[in-house]
Amino acid sequence: MRPQDLLHPRPEGLYCPPGDFYIDPMRPVPRALITHGHSDHARAGHGAVMATADTLAIMGLRLGAGFCAAQQIAPLRERVDVNGVAVTFFPAGHVLGSAQIRLAHKGLSIVISGDYKRQEDATALPFEPVACDIFVTEATFGLPVFRHPDPAGEIAKLLARRAAEPERAILIGAYALGKAQRVISLLRQAGHDAPIHLHGALEKVTGYYAETGITLGDLRKVAASDKAALAGAIILCPPSSLHDVWARRFPEPLTAVASGWMRVRARARQNGAELPLILSDHADWPGLQQTIRETGASDIWVTHGEEDALVHWCQSIGLAARPLRLVGYGDEAEGA
Predict the structure, then answer these.
(1) What gap in Å lies between CA 329 and CA 325, rounded to an integer?
(2) Are 182 and 266 in a shared domain?
(3) Do 251 and 310 reside in the same domain of the chain?
(4) 20-48 pLDDT tens trace
(5) What CATH number did the domain enclosing 168 receive?
(6) Same structural domain for residues 177 and 264?
(7) Total number of domains in the chain
(8) 228 lies in which domain range?
(9) Are residues 78 and 116 in the same domain?
């Protein structure tokens, strides 16, 4: 069958005609398959939603219990028939519950990556390469300049600043799903066992991570009534809160931002990061190249990110490749 007969872009998102479902649609649809719980991929208002158990739970926490009319859990690595299309979810390594989705029908297989990363992360199942004919890959950091450093080294920088300036509270801007919990986990791995304080916007999802058995240690809702007690404290908050009146409560706050975009100095300045922490939950340029090779796919569809550079690289090594030009994906909205 022709690839476009199994999957093609529509205004709502990627559509599978024989299965009559969308993947990460941007508008409400009758049936949606969701790769992960970030707000640019997981929206409310669909009829039926299929996703991993963790993604469904996270969507419920963030969007409310009635975010869709019906839910179906997709067990990892188990084939599910959806109107004659064989659908299988595989770990993507992006955040808790994130998955790639493999479609197989009439001898053709397509894997939709969703967002993914290749670095080790104790808060998410590691990415598993999946063989396929066509690989639909994200390209958030699809430029050769993006080569993510060792996360342990970034955390070591943070702890060194804390030791050198013990009178200051350390405010870390991190997205509520995935990034905040990964930062906490990395701090614990580095031996930081003091209480870590959370902005209220991070509590629900972080609590869910802890309930699943992920080790996050002593977490406390931030209280600024006693400023002196928060000297040297590490406090996590949404990136936008770094610029709020909320942040002024703390003693001589040192502002850090955890993001792969901190590789770009202009982005670091724009975010007001005194201490940029290059911590990404997406694959970097070598990770994208590695993954494309490991899938064995001969045709690569590139979406949401630096599409043209990755398409050019694929073509330079003899692969068919094209950009999908989908809109609406990127950094998740912090208010979600």
Answers:
(1) 10
(2) yes
(3) no
(4) 999 999 999 999 999 999 999 999 999 99
(5) 3.40.50.12650
(6) yes
(7) 2
(8) 151-277
(9) yes
Which tokens hold the place of 253? 């706050």
In a domain, 102, yes or no: yes
Instruction: Note the pLDDT tens digit of each residue in 67-109.
Output: 999 999 999 999 999 999 999 999 999 999 999 999 999 999 9
Domain harbouring 311, CATH code? 3.60.15.10
What number of other Cβ atoms are within 10 A of residue 70's Cβ?
Answer: 10
Q: What is the 3-state secondary structure (H, E, C) of the chain?
A: CCHHHHCEEECCEEEECCCCEEECCCCCCCEEECCCCCCCCCCCCEEEEEECHHHHHHHHHHHCCCCEEEEEECCECCCEEECCEEEEEEECCCCCCCEEEEEEECCEEEEECCCCCCCCCCCCCCCCCCCCCEEEEEECCCCCCCCCCCHHHHHHHHHHHHHHCCCCCEEEECCCCCHHHHHHHHHHHCCCCCCEEECHHHHHHHHHHHHCCCCCCCEEECCCCCHHHHCCCEEEECHHHHHCHHHHHCCCCEEEEECHHHHCHHHHHHCCCCEEECCCCCCCHHHHHHHHHHHCCCEEEEEEECHHHHHHHHHHCCCEEEECCCCCCCCCCCCC
Tokens of 176: 């509520």
Task: Say if CB 300 and CB 320 are below 8 A apart.
Answer: yes
Residue with tokens 């999957």: 7
Q: What is the pTM of this model?
A: 0.94
Nearest by Cα to 300 from 125, 172, 58, 136: 136
Work out the angle between the directed axes of helices 307-316 and 285-295 (0-180°, nearest 10): 50
Tokens at 3, concatenated: 């690839």
Whole-angstrom distance, CA of residue 6 vs CA of residue 301: 14
Residue 113 and residue 186 in one domain = no
Question: What's residue 268's pLDDT?
Answer: 86
